[in-house]
Automatic annotation (TrEMBL):
Keywords: Signal
UniProt protein name: Heme-binding protein
Membrane-spanning residues: none
Signal peptide, first to last residue: 1-35
Length: 191
C-alpha cells in the first residue's frame, strides 16, 4: 500500500472512531425541550410517529467493550495474541475495536469487514463463504465485505443489529471461535 493511502486510511479510521464517539454521545443526550412560550417545532423538524421515524436497536458501549474483550481473551487463551477484534453496528460503524499484541495492520480491516458482513447479512461469515461460487460477480464483490470465516452476527428478536469479527488467526475457524466467544459475552449463549 502506498504511504499516502496508509496515511489516508489512518486518518479516515481516526475520523470514524471520533465520529462514532460523538454520535453515541449525541444519541445518549436527549434533546432539550422547547422553552415555554417559544415557537413550536420548525417546519424541518420531523415529528415522531408511525411512518416517519424508525427505531433502532444498538449494542451499548459497555456490552460492545465486553464482547471484544471476551473475544480477544479467547484468542489469547488459544495462544493467538496477534488478532484484532471489531464490533460494528449493522451499518458498519465501529462500536469497539481491540488490536492484540503483535497484530498486523491488515487484521484491523479484516476484523471490521468480517463484523460488517455478519451484521449486514445476519449470518456467520463461515456460512456466507459457502455461498460464493466463483462464477462472475457476486455478493463477495460488495464494498466493505469479507466472506471469510471469523464474523458472527448479534441479533435482537431475530434481527441482526451488530456483528463481531476477528481477523489474524492462521485459520478462519479459529477467528470465528473467538468471535463466537465475544458474542456469547453479550448474548449469554454458548459460543
Amino acid at each position: 500500500m502506498k504511504k499516502s493511502h496508509k496515511v489516508f486510511a489512518t486518518v479516515a479510521t481516526a475520523a470514524l472512531l471520533l465520529t462514532a464517539g460523538v454520535g453515541a454521545a449525541a444519541m445518549a443526550t436527549p434533546a432539550p425541550a422547547p422553552a415555554a412560550g417559544s415557537a413550536s417545532a420548525s417546519a424541518s423538524d420531523i415529528q415522531p410517529g408511525a411512518g416517519t421515524v424508525v427505531a433502532q436497536n444498538r449494542i451499548t458501549v459497555g456490552a460492545s467493550a465486553d464482547a471484544v474483550r471476551a473475544a480477544l481473551a479467547k484468542c489469547q487463551a488459544d495462544n493467538l495474541p496477534f488478532v484484532t477484534v471489531a464490533l460494528v453496528d449493522r451499518f458498519g460503524t465501529v462500536q469497539a475495536l481491540l488490536r492484540g499484541d503483535n497484530a498486523a495492520e491488515h487484521t484491523i480491516e479484516a476484523a471490521k469487514q468480517k463484523a460488517y458482513t455478519a451484521a449486514a447479512f445476519g449470518a456467520p461469515t463461515s456460512e456466507l463463504a459457502k455461498r460464493i461460487t466463483g462464477n462472475g460477480p457476486g455478493i463477495h464483490d460488495l464494498p466493505g465485505t469479507l466472506f471469510l470465516p471469523g464474523g458472527v452476527p448479534l441479533k435482537v428478536d431475530g434481527v441482526s443489529v451488530a456483528g463481531i469479527g476477528v481477523g489474524g488467526a492462521p485459520d478462519g475457524k479459529l477467528d470465528e471461535a473467538c468471535a463466537a466467544a465475544g458474542a456469547a459475552a453479550v448474548t449469554g449463549a454458548e459460543g
